[in-house]
Each structure stands twice: as structure tokens, then as C-alpha cells.
Design goal:
The protein is α+β, with helices and mostly antiparallel strands. Helices cover about 35% and strands about 20% of the residues. It has a 5-stranded antiparallel β-sheet with strand order 1-2-3-5-4, covered by helices on one side. It is globular and about 45 Å long.
Length: about 180
Amino acid sequence: MPSSPLAALCPVAADMYAGIPYPGHPHPNSTPPRPYLRPKGGAARGVALSFTLPGDLRSASIARTASAAALEAHGLARYVWPVAHTVSELVSVTARMSPGRELYVSLRHREDAVRLLVWDQHPHHTELDTAALCEVRRRRALWMLAAVVDDWGGEWGMCEAPQPSRGTKSWVTLPR
């Protein structure tokens, strides 16, 4: 497996993306997108933040910043630390599973729990050995996420995205 920062975790993707160079520096005119945030004390519906990011390792920083800002704007600062860590882990691992493909991130707060969802376009493999190896690599890469979620008494998992979508959904639920 290549050792570049863009090295894919999936054995099939590693071969497909081995020749893609990893940009060393961000574009000088690029700024991370700022989410639209409702002010504190607004509607009691809670956080509802969704956005799409490029399948790039630098996207983890954007996801972390946007999620933290949304939680703080909605008076949910107690969730900033665990959500910042879990969204960073999920986005960076999913970016390595499908380099160059878009990732979808969703953050919701409902009924005293925060639910984080990251969907990537990494297809499931038809060959059983490859599918098993791919899942093992993804789970091993998420060891820090597992530790944070366990410490907070939450749950996490992943599954195949429902049809007609393709890819993998990874999710985290953190209770109050």
C-alpha cells in the first residue's frame, strides 16, 4: 500500500488512486465555508447542519470547525469536544476510503442526543475476502472514534447506504 498522505485504506482504492498526487498546500484564495447558524435561543428544533465536502484529508478540519460552530451557536457547547473528535475521525477515514469523491456530513440534535452521519461513495465489494479486509481496515482506523464514543456512552456503526445511493454510511450517536 502506498505511504502517501492520500493512501486509501481500501485495497482496491489503493490501486485505483495510487497515482493521484496529494496537494501540499491549500489554494491561497481558499477559505473554509461558514455555515448558516441560527442565533442562540432561536427555534427549539435544535441543530440541523448538513454539508458536502471533497474526499480530501483537509476536509476533516472544515467538518470539525463547522460542527463546533453550529453546536456553540445552538447552546450545545458540552458536545463540542466529542463531536469535534468524532467528525474529524469519520471524515478523515472516509476520505481515505474514497479519495477524490465527495463526502456528505449531517449533524443533528434531537431528544437530548447528537447524531452525526458521514456518507461516503465507497462501494461495497462483491468479493467476500476484499469486502472483509476493507471493513476491518475501516474499523481499525476508527479506533479513536470508538474510544471517544464509548467514553461518552454513545453508539457508532456503519452500514451500506440504502438504495438508490451507493456507498457507506457511518454514524455516531452521543447521548446527553
